[in-house]
Amino acid sequence: MSVQAVAWDIDGTLVDSEPLHQEALMAVVATHGVDLSDLLPDAFVGVSLPDVWKVVGSRFPADMRFEDCDRMVCDHYRANMHRLTATPNVDRVMRILHERGIAQIAVSNSNRDVVDTNLRAIGVADLIDFSVSLDDVPVGKPDPAPYRLGAARLGLPAERILAVEDSATGLASARAAGMKSVLYCPDGRACGPADHLITEMIAILDMLDADS
């Protein structure tokens, strides 16, 4: 089998978290009277909070620091983690891969607090070898640093790892790191170049069976 490990993106891939991320950001924005009406609704999908801050930070009051924004966003997110739901069939797929002995990691553009919250909320923390958060790397996706760190910690060549993503930002990171890529896109509309496009998570099993 050429694929020896699967590297999962988390937000939007393992868990339907983008609405809660957006809600948490908008709650902080509203608290401080910041206007984002000139930006597209999906402007920050797959974008790390530090990169969001680079765009909107200057719109906050002068005494507002990134660390304050980060804490408030994370507090809102964690307080509402009970509303997070796993992507359909992802638990089943991950458990089958675990039984087959295929290594699994999670590679996220979120900070450690959010990563751990997500994995705990959907009950898959015991199925992965480790997770890579934004706090673990000098720069996040679309830079290849997160996926390169994942490959290094696994001790595997990047080409033996299948990265599963849902955004152009994540795809760019995985492909730049040299990994095979899968775009999970339920509506079938590609958002970036990938080696494979799937509309249902269960299709990963067929893909790996064909690869064996």
Automatic annotation (TrEMBL):
UniProt cross-references to InterPro entries, sorted A to Z: HAD-like_hydrolase_sf, HAD-SF_hydro_IA
Extent of the signal sequence: none
UniProt-listed Pfam families: Hydrolase
Recorded superkingdom: Bacteria
NCBIfam families for the chain: HAD-SF-IA-v3 (TIGR01509)
The family this protein is said to belong to: Belongs to the HAD-like hydrolase superfamily. CbbY/CbbZ/Gph/YieH family.
Name the UniProt record assigns to this protein: HAD family phosphatase
